[in-house]
Amino acid sequence: MELNLRDAKARLSRLVDAALRGEEVIITRAGKPCVRLVPLDLPPRQPGAAKGKAALTPAFFDPLPDGEVRAWDGC
Questions:
Q1: Structural domains in the chain?
Q2: For residues 15 and 6, what is the distance between their CA atoms, to the nearest angstrom?
């Protein structure tokens, strides 16, 4: 499927669905192909994959200095 950028804007949801079904989606600008819409091939997320990779030290719970608090408050 090939369509111009203007039409692609109006039909983005349908184009994404088409790409996910395996259709080739080409978007043109000024009559020239410029973008191909393809699905991402990402590995599935694994619950707990980050377990043990980060830790909080007791210093995390210390009060922030006044200047830091003011910076966060936007004052």
A1: 1-40 (3.40.1620.10)
A2: 13
Q: In Å, how far are 33, 40, 46, 59 from 67, measured between CA atoms?
A: 53, 44, 40, 17
Percent helix, strand and coil across the chain, each rounded to 5?
35, 20, 45
Determine whether 27 is exposed, middle or buried from the number of CB atoms within 10 Å of its CB (0-12, 13-18, 19+).
buried
Encoded tokens for 62: 């210390």
Tens of pLDDT along the chain (75 residues) come to 999 999 999 999 999 999 999 999 999 999 999 999 999 888 888 999 889 999 999 999 999 898 888 888 876
